[in-house]
Amino acid sequence: MSNPLHRTRVKICGLTRPEDVDAAVAAGADALGFVLWPGSKRAIDEARLAELAARVPAFVTRVGLFVDQEASLIERASAHLDLLQFHGDESPAFCASFTRPWLKALRMRDDLDLHAMAEAYQGAQALLLDAYRPDMPGGTGKTFDWSRIPANLAKPVILAGGLTPANVAQAIRAVRPFAVDVSGGVERAPGIKDPHRIDDFLRQVFLAQSTDFLDKT
Ligand SMILES: O=C(O)c1ccccc1N[C@@H]1O[C@H](COP(=O)(O)O)[C@@H](O)[C@H]1O
User: 102: which strand partners?
Assistant: First the structure.
């Protein structure tokens, strides 16, 4: 994103409690992520999704996170979602088979060809880039080498992986992503968000782009 007026969007992921949804909305998050994959320590079931999604006001995007899951579950959950995030080995055709727009999450394994992935997943709204760990599909709390992200990628980038209030400004300056995505970096325990860390994260994003804007005008 080279436009100095671009406002970096923020997704807070892994929400499990009503008070955390309210805190993220109050802090100014653009999108809220709900993990429907039962292997996660932040997993919620469909009933909880319905309860949490109903609290989200207009103009805040409700994102459902799935890892290689049954189409029937994704279809049912979609009733409460605006956007789908596929974090497993889902094919482009599978991702495109639902009634919602979608993101493809990619884990930055050493041999990943991002240009090829942008071509393969051209139906995605954006590519969400996360750290690679062989034993976890995502949400590792680890960063990766941001210099591996090409500036001329054909898809918008959502930067994820180990972001915190302490490093998100540096990440924005280095990558200039469309959006940033955080889970563990704003928690006080797995699945339990810390409202102060959420506020701090949003503040750091705001400051990073404000100083950037002033530098360029
Ligand atoms: O959060 C999870 O438990 C999770 C599980 C499986 C796949 C993805 C998951 N989370 C996603 O990973 C990013 C990065 O997490 P973190 O900030 O490093 O903790 C997170 O934003 C979710 O989109």
Answer: 84
